Amino acid sequence: xxxxxxxxxxxxxARKAATTLAGVDTHVKNRALMxxxxxxxxxxxxxxxxxxKDLKRxxxxxxxxxxxxxxxxxxxxxxxxxxxxxxVASLPDPVGQVVRMWKRPNGLRVGRVRIPLGVIGIIxxxxxxxxADAAGLCLKSGxxxxxxxxxxxxxxxxxxxxxxQTALKKTGISVDAIQMIPMTSREAVHEMLRLEDSxxxxxxxxxxxxxxxxAENSRIPVIKHxxxxxxxxxxxxxxxxxxxxxxxxxxxxRPGVCNAMETLLVHQRVASTFLPxxxxxxxxxxxxxxxxxxxxxxxxxxxxxxxxxxxxxxxxLILSVKVVKHMAAAIDHIQKHGSMHTxxxxxxxxxxxxxxxxxxxxxxxxxxxxxxFSDGHQLGLGAEIGISTTKLHAFxxxxxxxxxxxxxxxxxxxxxxx
Amino acid sequence: xxxxxxxxxxxxxARKAATTLAGVDTHVKNRALMxxxxxxxxxxxxxxxxxxKDLKRxxxxxxxxxxxxxxxxxxxxxxxxxxxxxxVASLPDPVGQVVRMWKRPNGLRVGRVRIPLGVIGIIxxxxxxxxADAAGLCLKSGxxxxxxxxxxxxxxxxxxxxxxQTALKKTGISVDAIQMIPMTSREAVHEMLRLEDSxxxxxxxxxxxxxxxxAENSRIPVIKHxxxxxxxxxxxxxxxxxxxxxxxxxxxxRPGVCNAMETLLVHQRVASTFLPxxxxxxxxxxxxxxxxxxxxxxxxxxxxxxxxxxxxxxxxLILSVKVVKHMAAAIDHIQKHGSMHTxxxxxxxxxxxxxxxxxxxxxxxxxxxxxxFSDGHQLGLGAEIGISTTKLHAFxxxxxxxxxxxxxxxxxxxxxxx
Lengths: 418, 418
Hints:
Oligomer: homodimer
Number of domains of chain A: 2
Number of strands of chain A: 16
CATH class of the largest domain in chain A: Alpha Beta
CATH topology of the largest domain in chain A: Aldehyde Dehydrogenase, Chain A, domain 1
Largest sheet of chain A: 7 strands, parallel
Number of helices of chain A: 15
CATH architecture of the largest domain in chain A: 3-Layer(aba) Sandwich
Shape of chain A: globular
Radius of gyration of chain A: 24 Å
Helix content of chain A: 40-55%
CATH superfamily of the largest domain in chain A: Aldehyde Dehydrogenase, Chain A, domain 1
Largest interface: A-B, 65 and 65 residues
């Protein structure tokens, strides 16, 4: 069969599986998730054998040690995948939940009920653990999934997917509920992005290049976030001890992720007090600072920020620092340079806290907390399938609920329209 | 300025207006809506003058009397527009509503708050009243709107839009919150559909042709419904008096709309009793029936349904009729031929009612009620901006809430991530 036909066939089987999966009871799905977890742990040896093939190729291709690290299926990575699946089993099932129900004047009882989206397409890069994580979340939310991982993890992904499918056997859930596009060519992704009749939404997970490629080539709606240029604004009324603690956490705790702080905005009235101490703390942790002219007056030894620094997602131990006149200037800067991801204000001023929460147009807006909390687990969604920085369907971290939609139901006793 | 530049300028102004509109208090928006209503009523004479130009051209072009009807701004049409705006003023403001708030183990108080989508693009056909309706709903939900009506109503739409903008003056809301693309060329729509940085969502309202054109040419997410092929299934246990009343209502009360019944499915056990009486009732109302072979055995004088009849949205006094073996066959038929719009079961059987509600994959699923209730007003949303038969963002009738999304807020007191 030709490539197009093969990919279409995967789509048709996913659509069919989704139709029955929508009605499967929670305990059946949970049992399947637990079996998936058990099978992964039992299969560490064979998984590592397949993983070895990917690692060998990665080393031959001279991939960076960070990349090879992400690619490696250690015992603990496999255990974490299994734990992730067990955790998803323990979360409440959103499907069938009656979000609201009300009675109309004519006696019609109208409600909105959560239903799965249908078929989710996940396109991702190097980490093979996404295979199990995404499959688990889609299954629990009643969706069929079509996975397309990076070519560098092809053997590992295929092996994980095969184990998950085996675990579905005899559970009453179709094995077609979890499928993978095994072809590694870019043409295969193109064909996947044309399955508008079989896939309801595409979620790309990876670098900006991947996400732009998917967004520009997909006929299917895409839920996406390009980058996270997150800001912290230290207000004049901030508790500076707290500000220091939060800023260090937001920049240093894990600099390579999208919810790390990239730009620090400091109110001019506290700049001369706060900047020397935060600079000392951050430099102690190896952070390179790049400052605006006002910052340089206080911290003359740091590098000058260039105009493109304000738009950069460093994903590294680098921070741009700007002194602002007042909160309005901070919010303006965020509107202009932010990525609608996550911003936090450190303040002890009631009105300014409230105004920041209201006026900042990002998917996560915090007061006196680290930007690093912008994460499905940390915010209490239980799990995270991805994050959206566009407003349609979902905005911010996405959990199980964001993999569903609602339909209207109405229970009548003969109502007709006048 | 060139066309592209002019359209981009409209987009930029809308984006700017949206930024401030998001924070405008409800009573300011309500006052603006009331003024818009008053100004429309005061301006009937000048509106009708402009409308006359459209009507003259429509008659010259030989448009159908139904089309001319829809185009005509009578006193009562203008009054209805004004009443619509006043009704929107009376509805609760979704913006700022805290959907949910919870506390994390570390004390962080996390919530989800409704915010406007930003800028909505509405592309519509002949009815000029959509201009006021859509502008009112977008304003109330804190969104800027860019309207693009059909060329046949160009003078009327322009006049209505100018009145609405005048009403915004001195309210504190930017007049750029309501804008219209005045150019009537199709190229102007193409340019509008490229404003992915300025428009957050496009809602097309009109025939299938318009909607397909928009969906295929837009770089912006589109919320759409192609057609409504709505079904009623009369179960063997149905109260046949009720079934007759509902079927007549669903087919006859307003046959030209998307929530009218297009196909009647009848359980074989009641076919010989029910079909003769429903046929008599419907034929009395001038409905033409087209039957499957089983139906023809009972109603030998009606026309045979061709295979494409099951997929047709007649929007007319025509009904296709099929006898089915059992409910599962009815649901199969709906899956295959339905448009995920609205389906209703008439039954007195508890389990079958529940199963139908659960298993039918449409945006509205009813028990013992007319499909005609599939409408924002009728379901209690207060108003309707459109209907979606795709699952992303909204599914079914869309009210004010569907013109919003939520952002995460978190109130902390120094939390950092471990």
